[in-house]
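User: Assemble these into one structure.

Assistant: Restating your components, then the assembled model:
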Amino acid sequence: MRAINSLTLLLWVPLMSGQSTADAIESFHRGQYAKAREMLEKIVAASPDNSVAKTFVALSRAATGSCDAAVSDLGQQFLNNADAALRRLAGIALLQCQLARNRMEEAWPVLAQLQKSFPEDADVLYETAKIHMKAWNDAVFQMYQKTPASFRVNQLSGEILEIQGRYQDAAAEYRKAIGKNPAALNLHYRLGRALLLESHQPVNLLEARKEFEAELVLNPSDAVAEYQIGQILVAEQNPSVAAHRFERAASLNPDFAEPLVALAKLKSEEKKYSDAVGLLERAVKLQPLSESAHYSLMIAYRNAGRMDDARREKEAFDKLNRLPEGEFSEFLKKLGEKAPKP
Amino acid sequence: MKWFAVALLFWAAPYTPQFHNIAASAGLTESIPNGGAKTKQFIIETTGSGVAFLDYDNDGFLDIFIASGEGGPSRLYHNDGKGHFTDVTAKMGLGESSGWAQGVCAGDYDNDGFTDLFVTYWGQNRLYRNAGGVHFEDVTERAGLKQDRTRYNSGCAFLDYNNDGHADLFVANYLKFDPKTTPKPGENAYCWYRGIPVNCGPRGLPFDRNILYRNNGNGTFTDVSDASGISKPDQNYSLGVLTGDFNNDGLVDVYVACDQTPSLLYINQGDGTFVEEALLRGVAFDENGKAMSGMGATAADYNGDGWLDIFRSNFSDERETLYRNRGRGEFDDSTVAAGMSVNTRYVGWGCGFFDFDNDGWVDLFLVNGHAFPEVDRLSIDIHFKDRAILYRNLGNGKFSDVSERAGPGILERHSARGAAFGDYDNDGLIEVLINNQNEPPSLLKQSTRPSNHWILLKLAGTRSNRSALGAKVRLTAGGRTQFAEVRSGGSYLSQSDLRLHFGLAAARSAERIEIDWPSGTRQVLRNIAGDRVVAVEEP
């Protein structure tokens, strides 16, 4: 329960009607949960209508590990307290209690309500991340415990290793998964991708291409595997065959913009700039937020001599490419502008 | 089978170079400190330092300067002309050069006929005036180059941006760094690499701006960064500086390789100002519009079309980037088309085009080494110390990676940073000098030699700046014309031979050498015999 924001609790101190309630809440704030609980229980016994004290009784019970005793009151306060700040506190404590009691099924509705009521609250978002992480961990644990020989265990291991940047190890896990279930979709694709992430050396290109071809045998309509083969063929200096693969990828999935961008680059290499422009205009329509499509279209317009259009695309690209707020770029910039100390 | 035998008779295997590291036997034995070797606390320990080939005493042989990180002096070595280098750091007045030296560039800023040195620092840059080839004098303050605060200066280059006959100075700035306020490894999201805590940055650290100093012609410089527009871009982490007339308008432009942010191309407007146009000209990003972690940059006309192309070294999990100039200073990313898309596991730094086999087509070399020593803990195929890469120019717009068979010098693993290119023994083959972190430098020399011919041009300006910076040479030999420019700086924080080297293939002489001097003078030389150094003075 230490995660309950003590700064938030501070706000309540001056609002207490009775000095003893304020003292109890202050004790809670200082982390003296047992003392606060004792004081607050006495206050509530004497004044059952003191909703603030009732809320903090539940909070202090939760903080002293008595979640079973606290959840009922926390649930009531979370749903019915007139004060939004107290509802928020009760909801967060309730969620933490349900997690501590391993009652995931009861935690999800609390989280949903918290997200709805406080969508931009950092504490709520933090608890959201935590509960999803716990759910993920629980599922993985069960999977490894109950189906250790399943190909899914190897597949998941491969995906985790990929995230960690251990591509060789990931590829080894995908190979084990394929060995166990050669007909499973996506395994060859994941293996091919891991090989490309590891390196673009010729041997990796060759091996990855084999895997994407194997994926296509299982699923001939896999546009992404077609696209990957096209990219490998480009790297292998075989643009004409690559173009056919990109065309096929685009026909398999008309909403897939990447093969159009790749095809346009090949057209540009051949100096067929108007063909490139046509493909890229389609790509931008399909994926208006694609930086790659806008950038390529800007270059294609420039190469075609359509400088006004190129500048317009540059503006579109600039907007997409602007650093997100989370980069603190303005903050950092201001920091850098501080006058030097003498 | 008869036709096959005949065909074999006329087919000759391409020359295979054998590069060896001869640094120790040449006298380059001192280790160059540069931060932690196993772990690094701060970004200043990662960026390393440059090297320089320059003939400071005009004896016709290239000498060596090696910039050092904190813990040792930058070192100057004299070339005795017989393949041996002697440390003359103290004798030449450079013994007090401690600190975090970053970049080095050379040029004769005072037109006295002796090449001067500029060294950038995290801290205070230093201009060393070459006093008659017998002593270097620190004239930083007198020249007006003292900075009013601690700056993380990185690449530099002398250039005559206003063609007034005096070499000006461009200095890139990486970021604002203060060890007292910079978070430690693992302290925030920008201090992690693949799950391990590493030094923080550049993301998360404040940007800084680049600097242009105008040479006043009287031994002093004026900061014209604001007036010239150079200081306008303020969202970039600038490292390697590359000068060149990329749009062939007679005015030198400046390209800056930037880390994790768009690279910059300052186009010279001819009125003392520059406009940054990298995005529309196609050299800010990779072919997908993604900013790379640019480190070093080099330029040459690799495809023989008369326009300067650009190569930039990048981080691991990125491709290197080759930009082909399609004319007028507009570029296409031709990395994949040129066959350079295979090396994605290296962090590249110093790089340069040079013709290792003198076949008349510039090849490409780059050195590598990860920024974080901690990467070795991951036991993956990316290493703190890594080998170099050598690409052979196939003469058809494509390159072939010949690193694995180009000799042990290429395959040695170091965490290399700066690299410079020059023919230190005037034998017509280019050597490569490399600054390795916390190790002695490497000096790569071929033990074999191709049968092709060559020529080295040493240009001296009279009305133009004395170092001939910005002079353009079109050399025709065997019916083919090559194009090159004289430049200061380039590669990664380094200075290569100011002389221009051309491979002549089977031709024993150049039919025609056309020189466009920065002053506007055009000079044409005819039937110049090869296999020698040719000195040319501006008429």
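Chain A touches chain B at residues 164-168, 197-202, 205, 234-235, 237, 239, 265, 268-269, 291-292, 294-296, 298-299, 302-303, 310-311, 314, 317-318, 321, 323, 327-329, 332-333, 335-336, 340 (CB under 8 Å).
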